[in-house]
Amino acid sequence: MKENRGRIKRRRFLKGAVLMPVATLMETLPETSSEAWLLGCPVDQATAVRFFYNPEWAEYFHFPLVFRVVPVVDSRLNTAPMRPEGRTAYIAHEDMKGILRALARPGTSWTVSSKVELLDDFHTMVRHLGPGPAVLSIDVVCSKGSARGNVEPAKICKTLAPLDTALKTPRALWEFQALRFNYGCKVPGFKVGAYPESR
């Protein structure tokens, strides 16, 4: 898989990365409770989901990918600018509901907090020294609180693949497939050069 790692290169950044805690006093939930929490998360413009993993073998910094909801008439829909919290893909309400349904499937360990947290500026997530995070972190923020899921590297491709069907917004789907592709996953039908400005 190593030959795929540098095929979509974005602006180089610091190699070592540490994801800082999104919420304090978090409680680990059993799978059934985690599913209920995620499915009960209100979907509105305050809802966000972020994926972040900077592999130790990475030759460049893997920016976090964030999904945020906007109304269908909003000009940001189907765009993915770089924001302080990461590459941010703006999606429709139904897309976010689909993401939360897919994340609620068994297999991911979740911790939750009733505290609603803002996503960190990704510049605060990196340090000059130290290895990258050992797992893929998935942060969910909504009006009922915050949650974090951790996915072991060996399970990343299998865990993320089902989310493709949740994304109907073309740019958001491409960004998510690019994320998976850059982790060394097989992504059938992915077109590397579809959005050259994202390189």
Structural features, described:
The protein has 199 residues and is of the alpha+beta class. The protein has helices at 31-39, 93-103, 156-160, 170-182, and strands at residues 27-29, 48-52, 65-69, 82-83, 86-91, 109-113, 136-142, 145-151. Strand 4 and strand 5 (86-91) form a beta hairpin.
Features:
alpha+beta; 199 residues; 8 strands
SSE pattern: EHEEEEHEEEHH
Low-confidence stretches: 1-25, 127-131
Radius of gyration (Å): 16 Å
Number of strands: 8
Order of the strands making up the biggest sheet: 1-6-8-7-2-3-5-4
Q: Count the DSSP helices.
A: 4
For the largest beta-sheet, the strand count, sense and barrel status come to: 8 strands, mixed
What's the end-to-end separation, in Å? 19 Å
Q: What is the arithmetic mean of pLDDT?
A: 81
What structural class do you assign from the helix and strand content?
alpha+beta
Strand content: 15-25%
Question: Share of helix among residues?
Answer: 10-25%
What can be said about this structure in brief?
Residues 1-25 and 127-131 have low confidence and may be disordered. The protein is of the alpha+beta class and 199 residues long.
